[in-house]
Every structure is written in structure tokens, then in C-alpha cells.
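Researcher: Here's a chain I'd like modeled. Treat it as a single chain, no partners, no ligands.
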Amino acid sequence: MFPHGIVIEDTTLRDGEQAPGVVFSVDEKVQIAQRLEEVGVSMFEVGIPTMGGDEVEAIKRIKALGLKAKLVGWNRGKKEDLEASFALGLDYVHIGLPASKNLLENGLGRSRDWLLNTMGEMVMWAKQRATFVSLSAEDVCRAEPDFLVAYARAAREAGADRLRMSDTVGLATPEKYAGLVARVTKEAGIAVMVHAHNDFGLGVANTLAGLAAGARYCHVTVNGIGERAGMPPLEELAMALKHLYGHDVGWNMKRIPALSDAVSRACGVPLHPWKPIVGANVFAHESGIHVAGMMKSATTFEPISPDELGATRRLVIGKHSGSHGIEAVLKERGREVSSERAQRLLPLVRTEAVKKKRALTPEEVEALDISLV
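Model: Modeled as a single isolated chain. C-alpha cells:
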């Protein structure tokens, strides 16, 4: 389905940190970069060099690590921004420019002629010093398709290595995004990157649609952090590609939980327990029917194995538990109980869970067993 290959580029250290209220320290940025390398991410945006200060210090320290990953510096369409990237030795650079009239006129107060002239000048100038020049077409879903194609052709002629088709405010649908990507790749002949914001919860779906339509690159962030509703989560996209589309990106998936945890801690925001792939409830089972099935075969109610992520399966005892779960938890506590005794414990467990309004700990289940006459 993806004969052109896929490059997943992470932007946790740039777009991710632009999430309101999120600030990474220099040490945290270095740690996240190391974790990305351990997972196997081959390319990531390292920050915005023109910001100076701690941003520059973090980029210097990350570059000094000698990582295998390509480090990308993000820049506005200004020579001074690009100079800041080159001064740090970054030869993979991105130039951010809008494509829609909305952003051009209302955001910058500029015309399409200004955009085409600026883009051409910046790309040609950057290519004199950069190995890889990436260019934005921001707000593609509100851009006029004919102009978008013309812009993409001009970018290719100027020497850009790829065009980032940014769904800046998350207005794409999979069908619309796929159509735009297919048209640009076919008519402009330039490598395309998908950058899908998650405002309507379609970030991963739109990214997959864009890749299937011909995009070679895509953007993700760890845990899906980013502006407003965030970006497609790195861990969700990688696992969806592998398990739903048969495309293994070759990462060490067992390193993903440590990466996710590092970013969560740096953000100061705990992960939602229902967060796909890395949430605490992903491999937890309470329902009696589910637990009974899981004890026969793990494939009954788990689409992926916790072993793949270095995670652990948990049996939770609560209101919806059955006797099989009670037997299993007590066995782990060294207490062998009969099916009949487990059935007698069941109403006590359910009553206690309702009273406490939560699941019971193994110790609490054992105490109920001890108290049962």
C-alpha cells in the first residue's frame, strides 16, 4: 500500500512544545531527543534556532550527541532565521510559509505574488547551504487547489526537496486530504509531507489517507501534544501502520513507553488512562466476559500484545468482574480458591467496588476472602 516508503518525522520538540502551557527545559529536550533515537526515529524537528537562548543551547547539546537522526531546524521565510539554523550546523531546514488567502491576507497582510517571490528567493538561497530544504504550504485545506499546484511546481523548480502540506487548523477529512495530496504529487512532481492537526480527532486518519495517496513524509508528536488539540500521536501512527496496514517502520516499539513517559513528565500532564497504545488501561481487563476470554487466549480481547511494547497485562477487580478474575487475582496472592468460593465472593466484591467507587486492590480482594465465612 505504501510502495514509495514512509519517513515519519517527529516534531515534539517544536510543534509539540508549542502546546499552550508546555515548556521543556534544556535537559528535558536532550532526554526526549535521546529517547527518540532509542525508538529509531530517523528525522525530527529539533526546534526554532532564531528564538535564541535556551532553544539554541538545547539544539547545540542535542547536535553534540552525534545522533543518527536527521535534525531539522524550523524557520520563518526570513534569511535571518535560516542563518540561525546554519550557524548551528543544521543542514536540514524547513521554511514555513502560508498557502491560503486566509493566512496570507489576514495573517500576514501579503499577496500571492509576495508569497511566490519570497518562497523562490528563500528556497534558492537556502539550497546553497543546505542538504535538505523543506517548504510549507500552510492551511492547504483552505487554499485554492489550482494555486496550491502552481505553488508546488514553483517550489520544485526553486529546488525544494519536499512540500509540507499543512492542515494547519485540522479542517481536513481523509477524503479531501487524500485528493489534495494525490493531485499535488501527480501534477507538481514534488515529494509531499503530511502535517495534520487533530482538531476534529482525525489527525491519524488524515495522515494515513495522505500517505496512501502518495505522501512520503508525515509529522507526528509523542502523545499527540501540540497546538490546540495537538498532532497525530507518534505511537498511534506507528502501530496503526504496522498492525492495520502491514507496514513496519522498523522501530524498537519496546522503547515507546519510556519515550511517552519522558514527554508526559516534561509536559507536567499525566497520560489519560484511555490513551491508545500507551494509556494505563490499554492492557487492563475488568469485565468478567473479557477476563474469562483472556484466560483462554490473549487474542480474544487484545488487538496487540503488551509484550510488543514491553508492557504488562493487568486484571482489574471491580463492579464488572467475574469469578474467573477473582480466582486469578487470589492465586497471584498465593490463595487457591474454588470456583464455588469465587462465586460467593463475587457479590461482596461488587458491593465493595460500588461503595468505594473504584476497582479493588489485590489486598482488598484478599481481605474479603479472608472475611468470608
